[in-house]
Write a structure and sequence with these properties.
Distance between the termini: 19 Å
Strand order of the largest sheet: 1-7-8-4-3-5
CATH superfamily: Transcriptional regulator MraZ domain
Number of helices: 5
Low-confidence stretches: none
Radius of gyration: 16 Å
Shape: globular
Order of helices and strands: EEHEEHHEEHEEH
Structural class: alpha+beta
Helix content: 25-40%
CATH architecture: 3-Layer(aba) Sandwich
Mean pLDDT: 94
């Protein structure tokens, strides 16, 4: 289970040092093999390989004749990159995915249960600002009755 927000730095080659508390889990779950892909929100999604495979299978089972399903397949499966943690716990993010998400030196790694989101720091702040403007009138029906 991944949770929490961590600000990290990409090095000049686009490598991300995965924090040790997450690195140990990634190594235990699948020998440090992860999948990184694009997300419609303009961030990257980082999954342990074993968590990604069932998602990819479901995406590939969607009809390629449905334009929205096909677009989602192209975005998520088409941009998916298999990565391995190196000996020092870093992953090299592909340049095309870094560009897609607007990742620069300072990035934000956000635990989301079975996966991570990786954000450009300023875009992450915009997301937090939006979250603070959430009102009851805009609440999705599935959250009716939900409380913390």
């Amino acid at each position: 289970m991944f949770r929490g927000v961590t600000t990290l730095s990409l090095d000049t080659k686009g490598r991300l040092a995965v924090p040790s508390k997450y690195r140990d889990v990634l190594l235990a779950q699948g020998d440090g093999r992860v999948v990184v892909t694009a997300d419609p929100s303009k961030c990257l999604l980082l999954y342990p390989l074993q968590e990604w495979e069932p998602i990819e299978k479901k995406l590939n089972a969607l009809s390629s004749f449905n334009p929205q399903a096909r677009s989602l397949q192209r975005l998520l499966v088409g941009n998916a990159a298999d990565l391995d943690l190196d000996a020092t716990g870093r992953i090299l993010l592909p340049a095309m995915l870094r560009e897609f998400a607007g990742l620069e030196k300072s990035v934000v790694l956000v635990g989301q249960g079975a996966k991570f989101e990786l954000w450009n720091e300023s875009r992450w702040q915009e997301q937090m600002d939006l979250a603070l403007t959430f009102t009851d009138s805009a609440m999705p029906e599935e959250l009716t009755g939900f409380s913390l």
